[in-house]
């Protein structure tokens, strides 16, 4: 620190010795000071009585601060509230009651500000598994950097991340998933961090960045993060069992036990001497070797917590010199900033940081139309090239269509009553097929739940943008596929109705079935549940389309369900279309009817166009339900 700076700092902070603190702030412009005071977090959980809810306090009056250019380790026994604290500070909690104050610089931050200026690396990787590493980063750069930046600027950002995170070797490898091998766990973690830092956030949060990694890869990942903090970023990471090397890369340590803070201060030797000198350990307690410090500290607080001593530890810290130091540093920083003519770096106001951002206050960085284009280009285009994705949408029609053609070929023009019944059966099977195979559209939503939630939290798009992308993807594929199979069946069966009506009825039914699948995908807690629910629901609809029970024989107590049944309109439209030109009398079980339509109770039914309109209406109904469920229900509630 220069003499001039030293003088200014002394003027700002009085006679307290905060040199290391201010040093880091003045020297590193890219970070932001984060402080939190008396943070408590309470959720409602089930009580003993039926339906009763009781409050459960997960954090109690936690205070501390993270500084630019420093890494803070958030440690403590499993379940002590580390992730909860990180979520509260980073503004990612969407349930429960938060008390206390979190300041970014000297301001409370809105979600839109946090989306743009903080990065959050989740514990589990949330990447698009069929993109290559380079495409994943390019996709994120396009979605997170202002759309006014040029393509070259965005690609420079991608290249910078590839170089910084040492991803050169795997830049063209697909991310992969358990079924399709892709990049390694360590590489995936580095891509995840790369995705979070592509916008050069001021603050980076990491939840268990080393979980599931071997010690060498853990060291490597934390070294990368350390490099970022050396460049000025404010970094805070929850960490379970750090290697000695990793542990000592963290400058500061925040220890929690049962949601209470039991130590906040310098890491390593200082933390050890705090515990040895605070009077909470036995007199015969000995300092561990340096390489054992992390394990020693966590073992002690875990054991104390297990023996009901968390209150004692927390109270001891509240009375300690370290706690007083922490509070006075925080107060000084705030005072310094509110009186300084020029704000030190790291203490910029939110308003200043948002000043030249045309989308300030909006929860996404890029407009919806732009996000739609990027999602289509990177994700939908990839899906269209994926044989597994395509086959899930084609094979069902291939099998059902193949069986129908092999069983009923050439009967379309026959006026024989038996053949008309057979044709009605063929139409029934084809009209209801979309509902039975709709489960194939569930994974596209459910397997992406964590990714979707992470991208929403990161402000990449709005729920409606995501939903429209999903619809476009399915509609574009459904049009040629249904045209191909409807055309083949129509020709093979020698059908006589209007082909356009036959196809449109099937296409709209396919869209509606997709809407049903999307709704269940957003509504059901697990994929197994949804996979069971969608065909079961489709099965109930089959009873009331008019084939198994003629429409005029449906008992009054089921009539309502037959109107709700979108397949009924498909079947009626297809049947009228196919039979209205055939006026031969129809005989069945000794009874005579004017035509086959009379037998199925469809003689006086509404016109074809009305039924097509009804299916169209049901499509929009189910599309609306899917969107509402997706936007409202959050299965990864935090
Ligand atoms: N929404 C919630 N409702 C009820 N309990 C919750 C909720 N969120 C967290 N908890 C509970 O709060 C405690 C702290 O959870 P948290 O995930 O923060 O712990 P952690 O310290 O990160 O644990 P680990 O190290 O094992 O990941 C846990 O016992 C957890 O079950």
UniProtKB/TrEMBL annotation:
PROSITE patterns: ABC_TRANSPORTER_1, ABC_TRANSPORTER_2. It is a multi-pass membrane protein. GO terms for molecular function: ABC-type transporter activity; ATP binding; ATP hydrolysis activity. It holds the Pfam family ABC_tran. It is found in: Membrane. The chain crosses the membrane at residues 388-411, 423-447, 475-494, 500-524, 536-560, 608-633. GO terms for cellular component: membrane. InterPro entries: AAA+_ATPase (IPR003593), ABC2_TM (IPR013525), ABC_transporter-like_ATP-bd (IPR003439), ABC_transporter-like_CS (IPR017871), ABCG_transporters (IPR050352), P-loop_NTPase (IPR027417). Its main location: membrane. Keywords: ATP-binding, Membrane, Nucleotide-binding, Transmembrane, Transmembrane helix, Transport. Residues 34-283 form the ABC transporter domain. This is ABC transporter domain-containing protein. It comes from Chlamydomonas eustigma.
């Amino acid at each position: 620190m220069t003499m001039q700076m030293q003088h200014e700092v002394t003027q700002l902070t009085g006679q307290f010795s905060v040199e290391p603190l201010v040093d880091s702030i003045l020297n590193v412009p890219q970070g932001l000071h984060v402080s939190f005071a008396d943070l408590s977090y309470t959720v409602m959980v089930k009580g003993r009585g039926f339906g009763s809810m009781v409050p459960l306090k997960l954090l109690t009056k936690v205070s501390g601060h993270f500084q630019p250019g420093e890494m803070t380790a958030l440690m403590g026994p499993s379940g002590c509230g580390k992730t909860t604290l990180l979520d509260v500070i980073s503004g990612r909690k969407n349930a429960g009651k938060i008390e206390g104050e979190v300041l970014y610089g000297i301001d409370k931050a809105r979600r839109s500000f946090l989306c743009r200026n903080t990065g959050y690396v989740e514990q589990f990787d949330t990447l698009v598994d069929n993109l290559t590493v380079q495409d994943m980063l390019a996709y994120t750069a396009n979605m997170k950097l202002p759309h006014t930046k040029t393509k070259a600027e965005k690609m420079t950002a991608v290249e910078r991340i590839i170089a910084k995170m040492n991803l050169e070797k795997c830049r063209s490898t697909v991310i992969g998933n358990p079924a399709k091998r892709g990049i390694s766990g360590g590489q995936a973690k580095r891509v995840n961090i790369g995705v979070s830092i592509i916008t050069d956030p001021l603050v980076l949060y990491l939840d268990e960045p080393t979980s599931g990694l071997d010690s060498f890869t853990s060291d490597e990942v934390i070294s990368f993060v350390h490099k970022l903090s050396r460049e000025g970023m404010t970094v805070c990471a929850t960490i379970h069992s750090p290697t000695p090397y990793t542990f000592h890369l963290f400058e500061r340590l925040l220890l929690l036990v049962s949601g209470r803070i039991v130590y906040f201060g310098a890491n390593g030797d200082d933390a050890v001497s705090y515990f040895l000198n605070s009077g909470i350990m036995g007199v015969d307690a000995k300092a561990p070797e340096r390489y054992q410090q992390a394990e020693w500290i966590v073992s002690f607080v875990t054991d104390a917590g297990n023996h009901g001593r968390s209150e004692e530890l927390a109270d001891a810290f509240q009375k300690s010199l370290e706690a007083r130091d922490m509070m006075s540093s925080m107060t000084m920083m705030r005072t310094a900033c509110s009186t300084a003519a020029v704000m030190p770096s790291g203490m910029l106001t939110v308003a200043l940081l948002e000043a030249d951002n045309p989308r300030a206050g909006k929860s996404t960085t890029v407009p919806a139309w732009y996000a739609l284009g990027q999602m289509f280009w990177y994700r939908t285009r990839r899906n269209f090239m994926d044989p597994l994705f395509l086959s899930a949408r084609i094979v069902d029609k291939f099998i059902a269509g193949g069986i129908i053609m092999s069983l009923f070929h050439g009967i379309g023009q026959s006026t024989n009553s038996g053949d008309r019944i057979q044709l009605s059966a063929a139409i029934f099977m084809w009209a209801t097929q979309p509902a039975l195979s709709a489960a194939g559209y569930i994974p596209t939503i459910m397997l992406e739940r964590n990714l979707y939630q992470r991208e929403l939290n990161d402000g990449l798009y709005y729920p409606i943008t995501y939903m429209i992308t999903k619809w476009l993807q399915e509609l574009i594929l459904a049009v040629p596929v249904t045209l191909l199979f409807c055309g083949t069946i129509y020709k093979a069966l020698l059908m006589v109705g209007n082909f356009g009506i036959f196809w449109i009825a099937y296409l709209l039914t396919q869209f509606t079935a997709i809407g049903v699948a999307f709704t269940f995908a957003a509504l059901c807690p697990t994929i197994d549940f949804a996979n069971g629910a969608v065909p079961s629901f489709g099965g109930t609809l089959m009873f009331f389309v008019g084939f198994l029970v003629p429409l005029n024989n449906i008992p009054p107590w089921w009539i309502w369900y037959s109107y709700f049944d979108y397949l009924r309109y498909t079947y009626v439209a297809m049947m009228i279309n196919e039979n209205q030109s055939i006026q031969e009398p129809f005989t069945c079980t000794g009874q005579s009817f004017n035509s086959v339509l009379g037998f199925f109770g469809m003689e006086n039914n509404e016109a074809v166009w009305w039924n097509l309109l009804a299916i169209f209406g049901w499509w929009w109904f189910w599309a609306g339900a899917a969107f509402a469920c997706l936007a409202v229900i959050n299965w990864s509630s935090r």
